[in-house]
Amino acid sequence: MNELASQTQIRMTFLRWALFIVPLVILLGFMSGQISGSAEENSWYQMLVKPDAQPPGWLFGVAWSILYFMIGLALTLVVCARGAKLRGLAIALFAAQLVLNLSWSPLFFAMHQVTYAFYLIVAIFLLATVTTLVFGRVRPLAAWLMVPYLAWLCFAAILNKQFDELNPDAENLQPRDAVQTVPI
After folding, report:
1. DSSP letters spanning 39-103
2. The pTM is what?
3. pLDDT reported for residue 114
4. CA angle 145-134-12, nearest 5°?
5. What is the pLDDT of residues 31-86, one digit of tens each?
6. CA distance 48 to 42
7. Strands (E), 38-91
8. Nearest-CA neighbor of 16 among 78, 80, 84, 87?
9. Rounded to whole angstroms, what are the CA distances from 66 to 18, 61, 87?
10. How many angstroms separate the CA atoms of 36 and 146, rounded?
Protein backbone atom coordinates (compact mmCIF):
# COMPACT_ATOMS: atom_id res chain seq x y z
CA MET A 1 0.00 0.00 0.00
CA ASN A 2 1.64 3.24 -1.21
CA GLU A 3 -0.91 5.72 0.17
CA LEU A 4 -0.54 7.35 3.56
CA ALA A 5 -4.29 7.87 3.78
CA SER A 6 -7.17 6.59 1.72
CA GLN A 7 -9.47 8.96 -0.18
CA THR A 8 -12.18 8.21 2.37
CA GLN A 9 -9.89 9.18 5.23
CA ILE A 10 -8.92 12.41 3.45
CA ARG A 11 -12.59 13.29 2.86
CA MET A 12 -13.48 12.52 6.49
CA THR A 13 -10.61 14.69 7.72
CA PHE A 14 -11.83 17.54 5.52
CA LEU A 15 -15.39 17.06 6.79
CA ARG A 16 -14.29 17.09 10.45
CA TRP A 17 -12.27 20.27 9.93
CA ALA A 18 -15.12 21.88 7.98
CA LEU A 19 -17.60 21.04 10.73
CA PHE A 20 -15.34 22.88 13.17
CA ILE A 21 -13.95 25.79 11.12
CA VAL A 22 -17.01 26.90 9.14
CA PRO A 23 -19.37 27.25 12.14
CA LEU A 24 -16.56 28.92 14.13
CA VAL A 25 -16.01 31.58 11.44
CA ILE A 26 -19.77 32.16 11.13
CA LEU A 27 -20.17 32.34 14.92
CA LEU A 28 -17.30 34.83 15.29
CA GLY A 29 -18.83 37.03 12.60
CA PHE A 30 -22.25 36.84 14.24
CA MET A 31 -20.81 37.64 17.67
CA SER A 32 -18.90 40.65 16.32
CA GLY A 33 -22.13 42.07 14.92
CA GLN A 34 -24.16 41.29 18.04
CA ILE A 35 -21.64 42.72 20.47
CA SER A 36 -21.34 45.95 18.49
CA GLY A 37 -25.07 46.46 17.97
CA SER A 38 -24.85 46.33 14.18
CA ALA A 39 -28.58 45.78 13.67
CA GLU A 40 -30.83 48.38 12.07
CA GLU A 41 -32.30 49.04 15.54
CA ASN A 42 -29.05 50.75 16.55
CA SER A 43 -30.25 54.26 17.46
CA TRP A 44 -26.99 55.93 16.40
CA TYR A 45 -27.11 54.15 13.05
CA GLN A 46 -30.73 55.23 12.55
CA MET A 47 -29.65 58.87 12.86
CA LEU A 48 -27.14 58.58 9.99
CA VAL A 49 -27.89 59.74 6.46
CA LYS A 50 -27.84 56.56 4.37
CA PRO A 51 -26.21 56.29 0.93
CA ASP A 52 -28.45 55.65 -2.07
CA ALA A 53 -26.70 52.32 -2.65
CA GLN A 54 -27.57 51.09 0.86
CA PRO A 55 -29.25 47.67 0.52
CA PRO A 56 -31.99 46.57 2.94
CA GLY A 57 -30.71 45.60 6.38
CA TRP A 58 -31.68 41.93 6.11
CA LEU A 59 -29.34 41.55 3.12
CA PHE A 60 -26.26 42.14 5.27
CA GLY A 61 -27.04 39.18 7.52
CA VAL A 62 -27.67 36.92 4.54
CA ALA A 63 -24.61 38.12 2.63
CA TRP A 64 -22.24 37.85 5.58
CA SER A 65 -23.53 34.39 6.51
CA ILE A 66 -22.83 33.16 2.98
CA LEU A 67 -19.45 34.90 2.85
CA TYR A 68 -18.34 33.56 6.25
CA PHE A 69 -19.43 30.09 5.11
CA MET A 70 -17.36 30.41 1.91
CA ILE A 71 -14.23 31.79 3.57
CA GLY A 72 -14.56 29.14 6.28
CA LEU A 73 -14.54 26.48 3.55
CA ALA A 74 -11.55 28.18 1.93
CA LEU A 75 -9.67 28.05 5.23
CA THR A 76 -10.63 24.39 5.66
CA LEU A 77 -9.13 23.56 2.26
CA VAL A 78 -5.88 25.23 3.27
CA VAL A 79 -5.81 23.66 6.74
CA CYS A 80 -6.23 20.23 5.13
CA ALA A 81 -3.39 20.86 2.65
CA ARG A 82 -0.79 19.08 4.75
CA GLY A 83 2.72 19.47 3.41
CA ALA A 84 1.91 22.53 1.26
CA LYS A 85 4.78 25.04 1.39
CA LEU A 86 2.76 28.17 2.12
CA ARG A 87 0.11 26.55 4.32
CA GLY A 88 1.30 28.13 7.58
CA LEU A 89 1.62 31.58 6.04
CA ALA A 90 -1.83 31.25 4.44
CA ILE A 91 -3.43 30.32 7.77
CA ALA A 92 -1.66 33.19 9.57
CA LEU A 93 -2.76 35.70 6.91
CA PHE A 94 -6.33 34.44 7.11
CA ALA A 95 -6.34 34.78 10.89
CA ALA A 96 -4.95 38.32 10.67
CA GLN A 97 -7.51 39.48 8.12
CA LEU A 98 -10.31 37.82 10.11
CA VAL A 99 -9.28 39.67 13.27
CA LEU A 100 -9.41 42.93 11.32
CA ASN A 101 -12.77 41.92 9.82
CA LEU A 102 -14.23 41.19 13.25
CA SER A 103 -12.98 44.59 14.47
CA TRP A 104 -14.87 46.55 11.83
CA SER A 105 -18.40 46.29 13.33
CA PRO A 106 -17.34 47.41 16.82
CA LEU A 107 -15.35 50.29 15.33
CA PHE A 108 -18.23 51.47 13.12
CA PHE A 109 -21.37 50.63 15.13
CA ALA A 110 -20.19 50.72 18.76
CA MET A 111 -17.44 53.35 18.66
CA HIS A 112 -19.02 55.39 15.84
CA GLN A 113 -15.67 55.83 14.11
CA VAL A 114 -16.87 55.94 10.50
CA THR A 115 -13.64 57.37 9.05
CA TYR A 116 -11.39 54.91 10.86
CA ALA A 117 -13.75 52.09 9.87
CA PHE A 118 -13.19 53.05 6.23
CA TYR A 119 -9.40 52.85 6.66
CA LEU A 120 -9.85 49.54 8.45
CA ILE A 121 -11.95 48.07 5.64
CA VAL A 122 -9.28 49.11 3.12
CA ALA A 123 -6.69 47.30 5.27
CA ILE A 124 -8.99 44.25 5.47
CA PHE A 125 -9.34 44.24 1.69
CA LEU A 126 -5.57 44.49 1.15
CA LEU A 127 -4.80 41.72 3.65
CA ALA A 128 -7.65 39.55 2.31
CA THR A 129 -6.25 40.01 -1.21
CA VAL A 130 -2.81 38.84 -0.11
CA THR A 131 -4.47 35.96 1.74
CA THR A 132 -6.37 35.02 -1.43
CA LEU A 133 -3.18 35.06 -3.51
CA VAL A 134 -1.38 32.82 -1.02
CA PHE A 135 -4.44 30.55 -0.77
CA GLY A 136 -4.22 30.22 -4.55
CA ARG A 137 -0.69 28.87 -4.23
CA VAL A 138 -1.85 26.30 -1.66
CA ARG A 139 -5.28 25.34 -3.07
CA PRO A 140 -6.69 27.22 -6.09
CA LEU A 141 -10.28 26.42 -5.07
CA ALA A 142 -9.64 28.14 -1.72
CA ALA A 143 -8.68 31.33 -3.58
CA TRP A 144 -11.82 31.19 -5.72
CA LEU A 145 -13.94 30.82 -2.59
CA MET A 146 -12.43 34.10 -1.34
CA VAL A 147 -13.33 36.11 -4.48
CA PRO A 148 -16.96 36.91 -3.49
CA TYR A 149 -15.65 38.09 -0.11
CA LEU A 150 -13.22 40.45 -1.86
CA ALA A 151 -16.03 41.77 -4.05
CA TRP A 152 -18.27 42.38 -1.03
CA LEU A 153 -15.42 44.13 0.79
CA CYS A 154 -15.14 46.51 -2.18
CA PHE A 155 -18.87 47.21 -2.01
CA ALA A 156 -18.72 47.63 1.78
CA ALA A 157 -15.78 50.02 1.47
CA ILE A 158 -17.73 52.15 -1.01
CA LEU A 159 -20.72 52.23 1.35
CA ASN A 160 -18.47 53.07 4.29
CA LYS A 161 -16.89 55.94 2.35
CA GLN A 162 -20.34 57.25 1.39
CA PHE A 163 -21.46 57.08 5.03
CA ASP A 164 -18.36 59.06 5.96
CA GLU A 165 -19.03 61.72 3.31
CA LEU A 166 -22.75 62.00 4.14
CA ASN A 167 -22.14 62.09 7.90
CA PRO A 168 -18.96 64.09 8.55
CA ASP A 169 -19.81 64.48 12.26
CA ALA A 170 -21.04 60.91 12.81
CA GLU A 171 -18.80 60.23 15.80
CA ASN A 172 -20.40 63.15 17.66
CA LEU A 173 -24.03 62.19 17.07
CA GLN A 174 -25.84 61.37 20.28
CA PRO A 175 -28.84 59.04 20.00
CA ARG A 176 -31.98 60.31 21.71
CA ASP A 177 -32.04 57.28 23.99
CA ALA A 178 -28.44 57.79 25.16
CA VAL A 179 -27.98 58.43 28.84
CA GLN A 180 -27.06 62.05 29.40
CA THR A 181 -24.68 62.87 32.22
CA VAL A 182 -25.43 66.03 34.12
CA PRO A 183 -22.47 67.90 35.61
CA ILE A 184 -22.82 68.52 39.33
Report:
1. STT-HHHHHSPPPTTPPPHHHHHHHHHHHHHHHHHHHHHHHT-TT-TTHHHHHHHHHHHHHHHHH
2. 0.90
3. 97
4. 55
5. 999 999 988 889 999 999 999 999 999 999 999 999 999 999 999 999 999 999 99
6. 10
7. none
8. 80
9. 15, 9, 24
10. 25
